[in-house]
Design goal:
Elements: E1 2-7, H1 19-26, E2 31-36, E3 49-50, E4 60-61, H2 63-73, E5 78-89, H3 92-98, E6 103-108, H4 116-121, E7 125-128, H5 138-149, H6 158-162, E8 181-182, E9 185-186, H7 196-214
Parallel strand pairs: 1-2, 1-6, 5-6, 5-7
Antiparallel strand pairs: 3-4, 8-9
The chain binds S-adenosylmethionine (SAM).
Length: 220
């Protein structure tokens, strides 16, 4: 899979060079390219934003550099997403669907956002990571990329994906590791019993309890 991210601030993407994502790239499970939109702006000023028509606060990212950047990387089967607080709310289900694409392009907005014409031109899908407004689409693009990459086959063990929050509309059970007693707090006995059936039942009931408490909406 190939993920191209278009941004005016490519240096913000250092976190994608660490840990599991770094390994996925090294093992060629995914190719991630950070593309600087400014490289496609015109000299001498390489301007990428301008005042909004109709007035109002802030600046708007211009069509031309984004158009040229997309034209330089698009493929016949690519799907283009625009990170935006107006978008459809990103979820584990959407991450699963996105992880099956061969090539995605993610556009990061900044300032007041992006000229609507370039969004319409490529029929971009707007994606939001939550009901709040951030300064730019870079953090949302990293959130989406991270969520997608760990779902690509062989990036992490398949069992980890099956048994985690949001599979079966449940949140995950509590996790414990060594030591078995920490500051007088013992791990539940059942987890040390070796009885896999009982452990599974215990974890399932914990999952249900936690979901009811924190996210009852998932059970509807
Ligand atoms: C300050 S925001 C623009 C907000 C826009 N004027 C509005 O009111 O909807 C700048 C950029 O940050 C990104 N952004 C901000 N919040 C986001 C969110 N919740 N999800 C995804 N992207 C977001 C988008 O790319 C957006 O173009």
């Amino acid at each position: 899979m190939k993920i191209d991210i278009l941004s005016l601030f490519p240096e913000m993407f250092a976190p994608l060079k660490e840990s599991i994502i770094k390994r996925a790239v090294e093992n060629k499970k995914v190719e991630i390219n950070i593309i600087n939109i400014r490289d496609f702006a015109s000299p001498p000023h390489y301007k990428c934003d301008d005042e909004p028509f109709g007035g109002g606060a802030g600046m708007v990212m211009m069509c031309e550099p984004i158009y040229k950047a997309i034209e330089s990387i698009k493929t016949v089967d690519c799907k283009i997403f625009y990170m935006s607080p107006r978008g459809k709310k990103f979820s584990q289900q959407i991450a699963r669907e996105m992880s099956k694409f061969n090539h995605i392009i993610i556009l990061c907005g900044h300032y007041e956002g992006v000229d609507q014409r370039v969004i319409d031109m490529y029929n971009m899908e707007e994606l939001s990571i939550g009901d709040y407004v951030l300064t730019g689409g870079e953090l949302p693009a990293m959130v989406v990329t991270d969520a997608i990459v760990r779902l690509i086959p062989e990036v992490i063990t398949p069992e980890s994906i099956v048994e985690e929050s949001f599979s079966d509309n449940l949140l995950e059970y509590n996790q414990y590791t060594r030591p078995a007693v920490f500051k007088n707090m013992a791990v539940p006995d059942i987890l040390l019993s070796g009885n896999h059936k009982k452990i599974e039942e215990f974890r399932k009931s914990q999952s249900l309890e936690i979901t009811k408490k924190n996210r009852p909406d998932l059970l509807k």
